[in-house]
Specification:
By secondary structure, the chain is mostly helical. Helix content is about 65%, strand content about 5%. It has one domain: Four Helix Bundle (Hemerythrin (Met), subunit A), CATH 1.20.120. The chain has a two-stranded antiparallel ribbon.
């Protein structure tokens, strides 16, 4: 079950984040929208309603979750860059995934949103200075400090993590040709 929940493992932020890490992570964020749309474009309504694991979210819920989560992340980047170590507000992703839109809205709405959001996000991230990358926000759970650089890594991982959930389901079910994770 752990392999189904964390197919690429848990996020581990390097102690020393290099410019190469930042470049790689931004590339993951830049390519996610096209890769994700390519992965799910031929799925049927029934396939969108299939959980990626037992007691897990459906493919539909996963895609809407990515949009919601990355929306929050974009806001957190902006707060960290414009305020002095702001304390962020968390949201209950499980409750959000059970809302009417997450369970019923056309997936294309979130795919379009992810495309636009990531275009803005990547544009912002590519323009950051080394000082900007050191700025941070505080997470209310333990008042943990998260740097802009660390958050780039976290959301690159998050992109790969949920892509791997969907990709793994497609492979296990034998649902057509599957894009290989990078």
């Amino acid at each position: 079950m752990e392999q189904l929940r964390y197919p690429i493992g848990h996020f581990e932020c390097p102690k020393k984040i290099s410019p190469e890490h930042i470049t790689e992570w931004i590339h993951v964020l830049e390519t996610l929208p096209q890769r994700l749309e390519g992965l799910v474009k031929n799925l049927s309504k029934k396939q969108f309603e299939t959980p990626y694991r037992p007691q897990g979210w459906t493919v539909r819920q996963l895609i809407h979750h990515i949009a919601d989560s990355h929306h929050h992340s974009y806001t957190r980047f902006k707060w960290a860059l414009t305020e002095d170590r702001p304390l962020i507000k968390v949201y209950d992703e499980k409750d959000w995934s059970n809302l009417f839109d997450a369970k019923n809205a056309p997936v294309q709405l979130s795919l379009n949103y992810i495309t636009a959001l990531h275009a803005k996000l990547v544009y912002l991230l590519k323009g950051l200075s080394s000082d900007d990358l050191k700025k941070c926000y505080r997470h209310p759970e333990g008042s943990t400090k998260v740097t802009v650089a660390g958050n780039i890594g976290k959301y690159a991982w998050h992109s790969r993590h949920h892509f791997a959930h969907i990709e793994g389901l497609l492979k296990r079910e034998g649902w057509g040709s599957v894009v290989v994770s990078r």
